[in-house]
What we know:
61% helix, mainly alpha, two-stranded antiparallel sheet
Amino acid sequence: MWSSPFITTPTTVSQIMLRVLIALFPGIALYVWYFGPAILVSITLASITALACEAAMLKLRNRPLKPFLSDNSALITGWLLALSIPSLAPWWLVVVGTAFGIVVAKHLYGGLGNNPFNPAMIGYAVLIISFPMHMTHWISPHGLGGIELSFAEQLNYIFSGVLPGGSTLDALTTATPLDTLKTQLHLGLPVDAIREMPIFGYLGGKGGEMVAIGFVIGGGYLLLTRVINWVIPATYLGTLFAIAAIFHLADPVHYVAPLFHWFSGAAMLGAFFIYTDPIGSPNSHKGQVIYAAGAALLTYLIRTFGGFPDGVAFAALLMNICVPLIDAYTQPKVFGKKGGGK
Length: 342
C-alpha cells in the first residue's frame, strides 16, 4: 500500500535545468582528465556571457530578471555550446557563439519556450560557418600531442593567442577522429589501417570515447530522474547504429563500424542533452520516434558524405524545422471527438 500524501509538488523549470547541468558533470570531468582544464575556461566564459546576455535581453523586453536568470536555461545553452567547440578556442569565439544563441536564437523568438531552434546549436552553426579555421583546433589528448601546455599557458593562449616560445599550434592540436577518418578515406586508406593510427581508441577517438561514456552516465541520471524519457535517446542511437551497420556490412573497407559513430563526436551529447530539448522536439512518442530517427539519418549522412566532420548540430537544427509538421501529423486523437485531434 502506498501512503499519503498522493499530491506532490511539481518539478520546476529551474530544478529540471539544474539536473541537466549536474548530468553534464561526468562528461566534463572526463574531458578535463583527458584533455586538460581549458574546457573549464570555455564553460566559465560561456556561463558569464549567457547570463549577461539573458539579463540584457530581459531588461530590454521589460521582463523580471530574477525568475528567468535563476531558471538555469541560459547556463544550459552556454555549457552545451562550450562542450561543442574546441576547448582552446579564443575567448571571443565563445562569447560570440553564446551571445548569438541567447540574443538571436532565444530572445528574438520570444524567450524560453518560444524558440523553435536549439540556441546552443544555432551558436555552433554560426561559429563553424563563420570561423571554420578556429573550429578545427582541437587539443590532443594527453600523451599524443607534441607538447602539453600547463593551465597557465592554456589561459594565456585563450586570452592572448600567444604560445610558449618555440611552440606551434600544430604540435598542440589535432583533427577530430571523425575528420581524420574522412580525410584518410579520401586518400584511399582502408578503415582498418586508419583505425591503427594513434588518435583512435577502442570505440572512438582516444579520450573522446571516455568523454562520451561520461555523457552516457549523465544521460542515465536524466532518465532515472525522469527529466527525459527513453524514446529519443533509444531511437536516435538505435537508428544511427542500424544505418552504420548496414553500410559497414556492405563495405567494411570504406565504412566504419557502428560503435565508432556512437562514441565519436557529439553523438552521446546529442542523444541525451541536445535532441531531448523539450522545446525543439515533438510532443508525442510517435513524433519523437520520427524526429530522432530523422536526426540519426542526417547525422550519418553529414558525417559520411557531407563537408562537415560531425552532423549532430546540423541534424538538430534541420529536425527542429520539421517539428511543427511532425506534431501536426502525430497528435493523438482528442478524447470523445470523432475523426482525429484537430
